[in-house]
Every structure is written in structure tokens, then in C-alpha cells.
UniProtKB/TrEMBL annotation:
<dbReference type="InterPro" id="IPR011650">
    <property type="entry name" value="Peptidase_M20_dimer"/>
</dbReference>
<dbReference type="InterPro" id="IPR036264">
    <property type="entry name" value="Bact_exopeptidase_dim_dom"/>
</dbReference>
<feature type="domain" description="Peptidase M20 dimerisation">
    <location>
        <begin position="203"/>
        <end position="296"/>
    </location>
</feature>
<comment type="subunit">
    <text>Homodimer.</text>
</comment>
<dbReference type="InterPro" id="IPR002933">
    <property type="entry name" value="Peptidase_M20"/>
</dbReference>
<dbReference type="Pfam" id="PF07687">
    <property type="entry name" value="M20_dimer"/>
</dbReference>
<comment type="similarity">
    <text>Belongs to the peptidase M20 family.</text>
</comment>
<keyword id="KW-0464">Manganese</keyword>
<dbReference type="Pfam" id="PF01546">
    <property type="entry name" value="Peptidase_M20"/>
</dbReference>
<protein>
    <submittedName>
        <fullName>Allantoate amidohydrolase</fullName>
    </submittedName>
</protein>
<keyword id="KW-0378">Hydrolase</keyword>
<dbReference type="InterPro" id="IPR010158">
    <property type="entry name" value="Amidase_Cbmase"/>
</dbReference>
<keyword id="KW-0479">Metal-binding</keyword>
Amino acid sequence: MQRCELLASITAIEGGICRTYLTEEHRRCNRQVMQWMREAGMETHTDAAGNCWGHYAGSDMDGQTLLLGSHLDTVPGAGRYDGILGVLAAIEVVARFHRRGRRFPFHIDVVGFADEEGSRFGATLLGSRAVAGLWDSALLALCDAEGVSMAEAFVEFGLDPAKVATTSRAGARLLGYWELHIEQGPVLEELDLPLGVVSAIAGARRCLFTLQGSAGHAGTVPMTMRRDALLAAAGAVQLVDAVARRCGVVATVGNIEVWPGVVNVIPGRCEFTLDIRSGEDQLRDRALAEIIDGIDALCDRSQVAVTYREIHSAAAVACAARLREAGSRALARCGLQDFSLPSGAGHDAMAMAAITDVGMLFLRCAGGVSHHPEESVDAADVALALDVLEAAVEETWEHA
């Protein structure tokens, strides 16, 4: 917990936490985390994508490698635990093994991914995508808010952008990847459970809808003759909610804009976003199709034209059955109730699933609050999380 506080002080903003990719704060954070890795008995290095690594060698030098970790970057105005807690917990688990002189027939590598949030350049999972062999060199042309390209930021950080692909561990002998993360939701707290095993990471699709009606004078156009784009959008928002509840998915209209946006003018055009997620892609896609058909019908009745385009799509990622089972056994070994739940948020495990089995443990957080300074966890829960993660490492090997 003290280490979480210390990393919170490595920030680019006054009075808050902000640590983004390829910045001086990123460099300072890596330096501090690698010091702790070395104290835990690991050899350390920074890879070509800026991720920091600790290597705890096993007794079989040709053995497989189990990966543990999460991310060290933050959103602007972040909390202290999202991502960070998972990296520090992994270090502490290795430190326990080191203090006992325990080595396994496999290696353990702890990774602090450099960019999961995408706060600086707008593209997410950059660190883990590089490790998973999913790096796209076109990303280097992306620019931050100051006009600095990612390629330029690499050079300033002391890395060669042409070598990012060498970070890939695709094809390596990997035993799996474990990630401990705060839940970022209220389920565990509502059930009074400190920890749960993640079943799947939800796939998300996002669309932008544009509704075109007719603007007109608010006082002179009769109600029966209006083509109110905002009124149609309001019906669409209610439709989204109803379909999501019936289908068992989550869907959110997070932004809505109206033109001309004047108090005495009927809205002639309206745009709104839709974010829809589920741990089952087919279920999510059926719900989305129903929403689109429903909005089409609603707008037709309202004499409002509607178009939409998809602006994001990511497939759901199921956590590996053998790691879910290892997590369940780990909970039982620590005297905790076995409970599984899906993740509605994206995580580095999504990228890592391209090259190895992934497993995740969720830790409850107060009120489900995340990406906010009020992000909070209980120290007693963290202590349990360390025990469970340690047991999960052992269970992963014993039932490999």
C-alpha cells in the first residue's frame, strides 16, 4: 500500500495522478519499480516498447515461463490502484518465493506494461500488444495533444521505434499470464466478497448514430408536424436500455449532441454514441442488431432519417479454463468463497490471450469507483489478494 502511494507521487499534474506513455514520469516509474523487482530477487530490464520486466529464474533453465503483471500508466486524474496494484502484488509474491529460497521448474517474469490506458496517443494496450506480437508500425504516426508523434516520443525516451516489434514473445514457451486487478465495478462489494475469478473480458462495439430531422421555430410549428431529431434520439436511448436489460448485456449512450442547440429552435439534427458489451460476442451482436432495427423503425415512424457507423470493435476474450480452475482452487486454499464474474472493462490480458492462456483475479474496490482519485481498496483485502495470487501461481503449475 505504501508503494502504491509512492508511485502516486510520480505524476505530471499538480494535485492529481497522471502518468502517460514515454514521458519522464514513465521513466521514473519504471526505475522505481525495477528497483523493487531487484530487491525481490529478479533481474530487470526495459524492453523496446518501454515495458519494465523482472525475471525470476526457475530451476530448469529450459523451462516454461509464467507471466504476472498489469500496467503502470494511468488516465489523467487517476486513482492509486488501477493496474499499479497488480504489478506490485506480483512483485511481492515473487519476493515471498525469494525469501524462502523457493525456485520452480519454470521461470516467473513480472511485467509492468507501459501503456494500457491510451491516454497520450489514443490507442490502448500498446505495451501488451507489443509483447503479444500485435504491434502495428502505423501507430508510430499517432500524435499527442502537443503534436508530438509517437515515433518522436520513442526517440526522446531513448528507444528505437524501429525495434518495437522485437519485444514480441509470440512463440515463446509460456505457461500462462496472470493479472490481478481491481474490479472497477460494484459486484464484489455488493456480495461482500474480497476477490473473484474473472470468467471473460467483455468484447465491445461502439457506434455513432446521426439522426436528421427538421429544425423549426419552437413556437410556430405544431406538435403534429414536427420532425424532432432529439425526440427520436430520446426514444432510441430508452430502446437501448430496454434491449440491453432483456438480452443480458450492458449498453450505454454516453454522449449526445444536438443542432442547432438553441432554446427556441426544434432540434434538426442529433448525434449520439452507443457502447455495447458482453462476455459473449454473439449475444452482444444480436442485441446490437435488435437495437439498430428498433432505432430504424422508431425513426421511420418519426419521419427522421438515421445513419450509423461503427467506430470501435473488440472481441471478447475468455479466460482459460485451466487458469479459472486454478484461481478457484487458490480461493479455496485461502478459505475464500469461489466466485466468478466477467470483466466489463478491457485489460492487458486481452492482448496477451493472443500468445498464451490468461487468467485474472478481481479485487473489490469501494463503490466500484475507478479512474478517479477516490479509487480505494482495503488493506486487508490486498493481504488476501497476495495470498490468493501466490496460491494461483502454485496451482497453475501443479495442474499444468
